[in-house]
Design brief:
Elements lengths: L19 E2 L9 E2 L16 H10 L12 H9 L4 E4 L13 E4 L8 E3 L5 E4 L9 H13 L5 E3 L11 H4 L9 E2 L15 H13 L3 E3 L6 E5 L4 E5 L5 H13 L10 E8 L2 E8 L9 H16 L6 H12 L1 E3 L2
Parallel strand pairs: 4-6, 12-14
Antiparallel strand pairs: 1-2, 3-4, 3-8, 5-6, 5-7, 9-10, 10-11, 11-13, 12-13
Amino acid sequence: MAKKRPQTKAKRPQLTDGARAAGADGNFPVVGAREPCPCGSGRRYKACHGRATAHAVTELVHRPFEGLPGECDWVALRELVPAATVELPLKDGLPDGVPSVTLATVLPMAWPALRREDGSVLLGLQNDTSSGDISRDLADTLRRALVADPGSPVQARRAPADGPRLQDLLDPEGAFEPVVHSGFEFWVPDPENATPEVAASLERANSAAIPTVKLSGVDSAYWCETPEKNHLRWVMPHSEERLLDALARLHAAGRSSLGEGTRLVGSFRAHGLTVPVWDLPTGVGAEDVEKPAAEFAERLAEALAADAPLTSDERRARGGLTNRQVTLS
């Protein structure tokens, strides 16, 4: 139903001899990991105040996209959607020489970012990050991309622990409107005249992409087509416990489907949000579930407003939904 990421705890990074970091309280001068700690303890920096700095870098942020416009769509593009782009408005406007900043699900060679020849910036979302805060890692990559030489990719690195997050760089009032693509032609300005190597890379990427469509009638719901059956995956902003209670009420009442032959089969956890998933018959396309999804949204709103204790049937339904949860991040 989606690509699964290994569920392992972030490892504490080992600071190399050349690693440089500020003190955890931000007041110490810049020192090397093996140099004496400026606090005067006599210990090496990495064994003293450097510990807090390393921990700050690796500490897991449960909802890294919280507070950004379109949080649910950020999660969908990070975990569920193969090929999509979004224009990103910056809080302070675009710098001179940067005509646009575009978020992309993935970039060629899994580059974290790319500064094109015309100065525009592509920021890759589906990359492994070096800390427990995806927002801080992406913000660091974006800042470096804005000043990179045109025509060059931006390489991965560990973001400074005290660096800004996306919430600090992006316009909080700006729209977040994903455009889902059938392939990765957005990688190059003129795909029809691409070199043979680039054309081959595009062909490989396009052949692996699962056809995906964003529904227009409800927020953050994505239809996708797989060889055996189709699915609807819907990222929802409600708290997990409250949402599972509401889904259990509907499931126990026989009101959780999206029409004949469809079935609510479980949910994902991803970046602090819950993503219910429906199985759809092969012949059911995105346009076929627009109306049923809108009707389900109304039923869900009623169920979310209910505050009576769950009945025994509803508790069993909830247990079944919980047992079929998959954690992506």
